[in-house]
Amino acid sequence: MTAPIPPLTLWLGAAGLLPFLGLAGGVLAGAEWAPALAAYGATILAFLGAVHWGLALAAPAGESQAAAGRLALGVMPALIGWVALLLPLRPGLALLAGAILATAAVESWAARRGLVPPAYLRLRWALSLVAGACLMLAAVALR
């Protein structure tokens, strides 16, 4: 059995979705909030990478073979987020949506190797699906 997700983690994770939901809703309603949504998406993508930088720094000696991959996963999301912000809004939002989901997919691969806690992975997929959907809906809604 895997450890449960701590309640504070659930609350903070859900709170992190509020800007995605609100900003995407605003874009769908015609507000010009897409730049703010892209900025928040890039910020969250960088945060997701930072988790893996932290895992690499705190890893036990038995996981040293995973250090390079963890460090790369720590940096790549921030670089992709930066590129997304340099693109026009539609492709930038779509890139952010894909990158958030791709990061979760890589984490699933890592979890099968015991490198990511299962409770974290369950929460990440739930949050990532909502965030990715918000980013993609906004990208499609832009004219």
TrEMBL record:
Statement: the UniProt record of this protein carries the keyword Iron: no
Stored InterPro entries: DUF3429
Keyword Cell division among UniProt keywords: no
Keywords carried by this UniProt record: Membrane, Transmembrane, Transmembrane helix
Transmembrane portions of the chain: 39-59, 71-87, 93-111, 123-142
Pfam families, per database record: DUF3429
Name of the protein in question: DUF3429 domain-containing protein
Record organism: Falsiroseomonas tokyonensis
